[in-house]
Amino acid sequence: MHSEAVYKGGSSGPGGRAVQVPQSNRGLEGHQTGPSPAYQPSKQGTATTRPEEELDRLTKKLVYDMNHPPVEDYFGRCARCGDNVVGDGSGCIAMEQVFHVECFTCITCHARLRGQPFYALDKKSYCESCYIGTLERCSKCSKPILDRILRAMGKAYHPRCFTCVVCNCCLDGVPFTVDATSQIHCIDDFHRKYAPRCSVCGEPIMPEQGQEETVRIVALDRSFHVNCYICEECGLLLSSEGEGRGCYPLDGHILCKNCSACRIQDLSAKISTDC
After folding, report:
1. pTM value?
2. CA-based angle 181:182:186, to the nearest 5?
3. If you average pLDDT over every residue of the chain, what do you get?
4. Coil, helix or strand at residue 87
5. What is the DSSP code (8-state) at residue 139?
6. CA angle 116, 129, 127 (to 5 degrees)
7. Class of residue 96 by CB neighbours under 10 A (exposed 0-12, middle 13-18, buried 19+)
8. Closest CA to 100 of 16, 3, 7, 19
């Protein structure tokens, strides 16, 4: 946001206000009245001049006008219309330029900006409401983003609005992921929501805190934590190395080698007895 200054009689100071210009015949010494010596009317009639001559004439007139301003209070040329800004209170300074009061307006709605908050964008002046209309809007809350913009997945967010859909924690500067419908999740909630669940304990199989990967054991189309992958009969951990530590499933049961062999023997003995 910027401030602007109005030409008035008063002392100048920091902040870009107008320099004091006494309402007297200041600057008249050495000034002439009438046309510039470099710009005398032609006495030859209205003969057509060449473009080069016309350009030279206009250039000399501009230089003369700049060096010999009007005898009234003269503050420069208006950056908007190009005419002289003459007379106390007729102009203002904004964006390090001089404007007529009536020329210093919002580029969009043309409201006068003298004494009002305004914004400069690409050297153009905007009133507050029109400036806000030029801003990007947050993809979550749809409000204009006045400060820092957080961009993710091709969209713009307020940093405070970029949150996990499950726990609502802010994900500004934090690793995140999205599901198949582009819903934003923190890593932990994504795993808790979508990770396969252990068939023994029912908990999701997800990385430990601070880890990015984990091990999932699949047997008989079922998923297991490493520490949950045990023999259903004796509780032997089947995921560790060693003799007889592998899985020897029988009739849909997860068994170690010894327990599987024992069940097979029991089944064989039962069949023999039944016969």
Report:
1. 0.52
2. 120
3. 79
4. coil
5. T
6. 35
7. exposed
8. 7
